[in-house]
Amino acid sequence: MEINYENLNSMQMDVLKELGNIGAGNAVTALSKMLNKRVNMEVPKVKILEFNEVTEILGGAEIPVTGIYFRMDGDISGNIMFLIPVESSKALLDMLMGIYRDGDEFGEMDISALEEIGNILASSYISSLSALTGMKIKISVPALAIDMVGAVLSVPIIQFGHMGDSVMLIETHFSEGNTHVKGNFLLIPDVESFANLLEKLGVA
Fold first, then answer.
1. CATH for 5-200 (3.40.1550.10, 2.60.40.10, 3.30.2010.30, 1.10.510.10)
2. Long-range contact list for 179-183, CB < 8 A, 24+ apart?
3. What is the pLDDT of residues 85-104, one digit of tens each?
4. Is pTM beyond 0.85 here?
């Protein structure tokens, strides 16, 4: 039986949500170390969606976001994306550099910093996934785009010509002092990898 978002049972959903919680927690811990500041996180919201539902969940195709994209390969293959509203991207840079960026364009240093943050967060999620499943997974170098949600989500489709049907979306709110950031982490396994992931998690 092909496993996708439509025929997950409650135990499989619970395990995937727990995976999302652990990944988000580890990512925020890594961000705290990078910033050398205490970062607080709300309990993340974990959803399993069909790929074509993501745009609507994020507020529509025309919402401007920073998208940080990775390809993952190894025992599981697929795509990883961070979608961060542009205002939250500026708040992240404020956390990192102590510069308030109201209305500023992103410079080369900003892009590099956001890619590095994305790399640290993605590596934390993948390390959590590897630890829980015993799978060996590697991720590509990050690619970053600042555009509307619809355009950013089309990047991996254009590059690979297909996408897995199922998406694990982890919506995370975190803060440092008075600075608040909303981030969306998307794990998009290739179709055959989704069943393999559930099998490795012991709930196939």
1. 3.40.1550.10
2. 179/91, 179/94, 179/95, 180/88, 180/91, 181/84, 181/88, 181/91, 181/92, 181/95, 182/84, 182/85, 182/88, 183/82, 183/83, 183/84, 183/88, 183/121
3. 888 888 888 887 776 566 66
4. no
